[in-house]
Write a structure and sequence with these properties.
Blueprint: H1 8-46, H2 53-67, H3 77-97, H4 100-119, H5 121-126, H6 128-136, H7 142-166, E1 172-174, E2 177-180, E3 183-186, H8 194-211, H9 215-246, H10 254-287
Antiparallel strand pairs: 1-2, 2-3
Helix pairs in contact: 1-4, 2-6, 3-4, 6-8, 7-9, 8-9, 8-10, 9-10
């Protein structure tokens, strides 16, 4: 028997019904998340403290594309709907409190909910690194940055002053102000190391996710980002004071001071890379990698 062709009108109605849920979901996402998405993009572009998001967000999308779909994927409607409901509640509460971090985090949670709804938990596990990078791309709340900045300023000041005294530079420390003969260095919030700490934590997550296989090794690399950031920033304060005292006071500001910070950040990245390489070799050893046989 020959199948009768379907009516064009019936096919059009069926296509419309199939596309309706997607269109409604896209409309709802646009209504809910346009404001947090636009403010986040604006901060990435205009705020130097949040500029790392310009790198992390596209990198997360590329890593998700490269990772592809999990062979074990299976829709998990319950988990997906629960995550989407939580994202909507967070979006609503964040809007009421005008709290940007909560508003923006709700977008990532909604994306995780859609992923779980369509492909389940195995896909979430496969894309854990892209989702982690998206969370790290969101600037921390002002309350958190204010709470972290001042202790980091004092720590960088005290360690930098100790290094200067070790090199027999006459120095007096008053809080986050380093007094040199005829000169004073003020360790500002920008020099507290908070910016380098956020960047190094992101790099630690990325390096651990790409190079390492075990959670323990990844946690070790991630934990080392904190002391590395503190030591590198203390070294920056020391170098600034040393150059100001022995060479030229102008070296404590402007382009040269900024270049010094970038060079030390490269050193910090090299340290993390070295630790990750050692950790990967230890993993290969205990895993019985044939290359080591």
């Amino acid at each position: 028997m020959t199948a009768l062709p379907q009516s064009p009108l019936r096919v059009a109605i069926w296509d419309l019904r199939a596309a309706a849920p997607i269109a409604i979901a896209a409309l709802a996402a646009g209504i809910l998340f346009t404001l947090p998405a636009t403010t986040l993009a604006r901060d990435w572009w205009n705020d130097s403290e949040a500029g790392h998001g310009l790198l992390l967000a596209p990198l997360a999308v590329w890593l998700a594309w490269r990772g592809g779909l999990s062979p074990a994927r299976a829709p998990n409607v319950t988990l997906g709907l629960a995550a989407l409901l939580a994202a909507v509640i967070l979006r609503y509460l964040g809007g009421l409190a005008a709290e940007l971090f909560t508003l923006r985090f709700s977008m990532v949670l909604a994306a995780a909910g859609v992923t779980a709804f369509a492909w389940g938990g195995p896909q979430l596990r496969r894309w854990w690194l892209p989702f982690a990078l998206l969370v790290l791309a969101i600037p921390l709340p002002t309350l958190v940055t204010n709470a972290l900045a001042l202790p980091l300023q004092f720590k960088a000041s005290s360690m930098g002053a100790a290094l200067l005294a070790w090199r027999e530079v006459p120095v007096t420390l008053r809080g986050n102000v380093i007094l040199l003969p005829g000169r004073q260095l003020f360790v500002t919030e920008a020099c507290s190391g908070l910016r380098s700490l956020a960047a190094l934590v992101s790099l630690g997550v990325l390096v651990g996710g790409l190079w390492l296989r075990t959670p323990a090794a990844r946690l070790i690399v991630l934990a080392l980002t904190i002391p590395v950031a503190i030591l590198i920033n203390a070294a920056r304060v020391f170098m600034t004071g040393f150059l100001v005292y022995f060479v030229d006071p102008k070296l404590g500001e402007g382009f040269l001071h900024l270049t010094e910070g970038w060079l030390l950040f490269v050193v910090a990245f090299a340290i993390l890379g070295s630790v990750a390489w050692v950790a990967s070799r230890v993993e290969d050893h205990f895993a019985g990698d044939p290359a080591d046989a």
